[in-house]
Amino acid sequence: MLNQVVLVGRLTHDPELKKTEEGRSVTTIRLAVQRPFKSGETNEYETDFFSCTLWSGIAEATVDYCKKGSIIGVKARLSQKDYLVDGQRIFNYPEIIVEKISFISNSKD
């Protein structure tokens, strides 16, 4: 069985390090990934935006070395999130959990 996601894109904002109550480092990044083809309607490249969660050393390194506009590659897995609505558990919120990161370039500025 395989649960793997590979994305390469630009950070849409500077990553910020946070700490959990247990003291574990975490950051959430937003990755803009341009599609490899142009839209038939506008003849322009479209972009998808993905939220990714990074933990511990990967989170700390990303905050230290990346900023808005940096191009990074991530190898990640999908984790199914659930939440309660009127006491009923809903399972439809996938979360991208980064397991490995590659720093490809600094930001454009």
At a glance:
9% of the residues lie in helices and 61% in strands. By secondary structure, it is mostly beta strands.
- How many strand elements? 6
CATH third-level topology: OB fold (Dihydrolipoamide Acetyltransferase, E2P)
Mean pLDDT: 91
List SSEs in N-to-C order.
Answer: EEEEHEE
Radius of gyration, in Å, reads 16 Å
What's the domain count? 1
What is the helix fraction of residues, given as a range? under 10%
- Gross CATH architecture: Beta Barrel
Given as residue ranges, the uncertain stretches (5+ residues, pLDDT < 50) are none
How much of the polypeptide forms β-strand, as a percent range?
over 45%
Give the helix/strand class: mainly beta
Task: Give the CATH superfamily.
Answer: Nucleic acid-binding proteins
Gross geometry? globular
Brief descriptors of the model:
single chain; 109 residues; mainly beta; OB fold (Dihydrolipoamide Acetyltransferase, E2P); five-stranded mixed β-barrel; 6 strands; 61% strand; globular
Give a description of the structure.
- The chain is 9% helix and 61% strand.
- The termini are far apart.
- The protein has a 5-stranded mixed β-barrel with strand order 1-3-4-6-5.
- It has 1 helix and 6 strands, in the order E-E-E-E-H-E-E.
- The longest helix is centred in the middle third of the chain and has 10 residues, at 56-65.
- The protein is mainly beta and 109 residues long.
- A hairpin with a 6-residue loop joins strand 3 and strand 4.
